[in-house]
Amino acid sequence: MEKIYDVVIIGAGPAGLSAGLYASRGKMSTLILEKDKTGGQIVTTHEVANYPGSIESATGPSLIARMVEQCKEFGAEIKKDTIKEIKTEEKIKVLVGEKETYQARTIIAAPGAIPRPMGVPGEKELTGKGVSYCATCDADFFTDFEVFVIGGGDSAVEEAMYLTKFARKVTIVHRRDELRAAKSIQEKAFKNPKMEFMWDTVIEEVKGDGVVESAVFKNVKSGELTEYHADEEDGTFGIFVFVGYLPQTDLFKGLLEMDETGYLITDDNMKTKIPGVFAAGDCRVKSLRQVVTAVSDGAIAAIQAEKYIEHTFHE
Predict the structure, then answer these.
(1) Chain centre distance of CA 203
(2) With contact defined as beta carbons under 8 Å apart, do 124 and 113 qualify?
(3) Pair 294, 13: CB distance under 8 Å
(4) Which residue among 6, 71, 81, 138 is the active-site one?
(5) Which of the residues 137, 177, 231, 259 is marked catalytic?
(6) What are the distances in angstroms from CA 12 to CA 70, 174, 275?
(7) 283 catalytic, yes or no?
C-alpha cells in the first residue's frame, strides 16, 4: 500500500477512461479500478452513431478498446477490484478493495449505472432465459422469433429497431400513449414494417418453466389483463427491457450527496462536497446520459483533480 496515486478512478466506462486519459496525459500517477467489465454499458451497444467523429461504423466495444489503449499509452494502470470502503478523513484518501488497499490524493467516482428491472414476478427467474436488457448481446437468440420491447425512450426504440434485423416481429410496449424517443427515431420506427406498438400497457408478470412462455399485460387505463402465449412452434419469445437505469452508487451512501434516486450531486466542475473527490458520468445528476457527456465529465474531473493536487499538496 506504499504507493500514493495522484488519482484513483472508480469505474472503467467512458467517463472513467476519459478521466484516466486526461490524468495520465497530465503526468499524474493514475489508477483505474473496475469491478466488472471494462467499458460499462457502451460495450453492449451495437452502434455508436451519435458520438462525434464515429462515422466508420464504430461499435461500443471498438470505441472502448481505443480508449483503453490511449489510457495505457500515457501510463494509466487499469486493475480489476471491487472497492468496499472509502476513507476521506485525511488529505490522503484510502480505498479498501477486495484484493488490495489503495492510497490516493484524489478520487474520481465513475461507477456508472445499470439497467433498471421491471420488478415483476418471473422477471428475475427468467433473466437470460428470454428476458434480456441488452439487444446487442441477445438479439441473435431470437432470430425469426417474436420479441416485446418494454419502454418508450431513445434506447428502447433504437434497440427495438436493431432487433427487427433478427426477430420476425417486434412489439414496443409503452405505458403511455406516445413515445418519449426523439422524433427522428420515432419516424424510423413507425415506418418499420416489422414493428408494432402496444400503448398504455405494462407487463404484470412473466411466466415460463425454464424459458419465457407467456407474459401478462395490463392496460393502465382500463385495467384489463391480457396473457400472451408463445407461438406453439416457437415455444418461447423475447422480452427486452429498457426502462431506465439504476446508478451504481451504494458505495458512496453516507459519504457523498445524492438525489432521491441515488445519483451523485456535483457542481459543474464535477466536485462533490468532499474536497478532492469528484464524480463523472452516468452516476451523476445530469440532463443527458450519453457517451459524449460521460467523456466530457471525465475530462473535467481529471483537470479539476490536477488543480486540487496543485493547490493542496504543492503550495
Answers:
(1) 23
(2) no
(3) yes
(4) 138
(5) 137
(6) 13, 32, 22
(7) no
Number of Cβ atoms within 10 Å of the Cβ of 29: 17
The pLDDT tens digits of the residues spanning 113-134 come to: 988 999 999 999 999 999 999 8
Q: How far is CA 128 from the centre of its chain?
A: 18
Q: Is 0.85 topped by the overall pTM?
A: no
Q: What's the gap between Cα 181 and its chain centre?
A: 18
User: What is the torsion angle, in degrees rounded to the nearest 10, for the CA atoms of residue 78, residue 133, residue 50 and residue 107?
Assistant: -30
pLDDT tens-digit readout, 7-38: 999 999 999 999 999 999 999 999 999 998 88
Lookup: cell for 227: 396473457
86: region left, alpha or beta (phi > 0 left; psi from -120 to 50 alpha): beta
Phi, psi for 49 (deg, rounded to 5):
-85, -15
Q: Report the side by side order of strands in the sheet with 146-150.
A: 131-132, 238-241, 146-150, 169-173, 195-198
Please name the residue that has the C-alpha cell 414494417.
193
What crossing angle do the helices spanning 14-25 and 60-73 adopt, rounded to 10°? 20
What is the rounded CA–CA span in Å between residue 189 and residue 193? 9
Q: Which grid coordinates are listed for 253?
A: 451512501
Residue keyed to cell 441477445: 138
Domains and CATH numbers, the chain: 4-115+245-313 (3.50.50.60), 131-241 (3.50.50.60)
Cα torsion 258, 262, 268, 272 to 10°: value is: 40
Active site residue 140: no
Question: What would the pLDDT profile of 201-222 be if each residue is shown by its tens digit?
Answer: 999 999 999 999 999 999 999 9
